[in-house]
Amino acid sequence: MHGCRNPIHCIVPPYVLDHMAQSDDPAIRKLAVSGIARSAWLRASRATLAQLPVMAAIPSPTATKNRLVYDMKNKGASFLPGKLVRSEGQAKSQDPAVNEAYDYAGVTYNFYKKNFGRNSLDNNGMNLISSVHVGSGFNNAFWNGEQMAYGDGDGALFLRFTRSLDVVGHELSHGVVSFTSNLEYLNEPGALNEHFADVFGSLIKQWRRKQTAKQADWLIGPDIVGPDATATALRTFKDEKAFENDPFLGTDPQPKHLKNKYKGGEDSGGVHINSGIPNHAFFLVATSLGGRAWEKAGQIWYKTLLALTRSSDFAEMVEVSVRTAAGLHGTGSQEEKAVTQAWKAVGF
Amino acid sequence: MTFRQTGGFAGLSRGCELDTEAMSAKEALKLERLVARSRLGGPLRRGSEAARDLTSYRITVETAQGPSTVEYDDETMPEEATELLAYLQACAKPAPLG
Fold this sequence. Notes:
The complex is a heterodimer. Chain A has helices at about 15-20, 25-50, 95-115, 165-180, 185-210, 265-270, 275-290, 295-305, 315-330, 335-345, and strands spanning about 65-70, 85, 130-135, 140-145, 150, 220, 235.
């Protein structure tokens, strides 16, 4: 079935490299011999690097908005952050990815400052560091614990990830989560971590567009889906599939009800999957209350985020968000009822 | 060889299975060279625990000695494996979650 013709098909243990060194193919022999030496060096290097302390958040010189955008020139993530190409206050670059990362980080900073009084991700003026052109055809964006990293996409399945304000807002919001509840990135706490990143990513976009909850698209990633995909977005807060039978993406796996919760171990216990359940609950709260979603639903959710802890699960999220709504608007208020009913609708 | 990727910003689940015995000799040799150049080794390489939205990659090879698996993510995938990863991603299709 998957039997190898001979052990040179194999990649992993040192004994495989040893065997490759006996190959009839001179190219493989040469690579195997140098690989044996390099593997030992790499293992030693990684062990040393793992002991280095994680860089603490660096506050900006003026403890206010301070954006730094770096160009990775298509090198891999191990070379972060890259070359500094635009600092706070500097003129626009010729590179749209640089400008998008810069501008959208600014919108995100302004959203948190204006609506929640929060001074950057750590509420202490932390520098907003973005690296663009990570890898070659890299179909991803991530937060590495200290900065954002954005790929350009392969142009077919995905476009460059800096094109999307909700993507930038999502990644930076992971930073906000890490400096508040710091929800563990596993199982239900991890799904809540993803949920808050989606919520605030979406609210930032709505705020920028001055949209009401009714006007909002409630989509994540519509601006980065490439021409070869039939999907129009990667996720939706609504009780529907963001994509179905897409040749590259498949079918949207997110449940919108607790009864369909993913219980497997992939994706760190489904952090990008089960976030669909609280995402839909938030949509129900926001559309029930009407108006601009960041004003009431967003405030309740931000205060809830601050009250949760690293191990908070869905049940605690339900309890704390209802209590927060009551605290902000009164017991028996329309807002408390909206939150309670939304959670009930998704199975709690 | 079995390839699987999960996670990332999009939370996609994709994968493929390759049987070198079913390939042309030329294609099998190409894959062998990519594997040799990739310098992959060891059981598990995970990036920073504080990182979010990293894509995870798992590669399993069936050998005469049994299956052997390596796991990496976007932070830890060796530069030398870039071409192999591109090859595997080109053959990958949407896969149901395990």
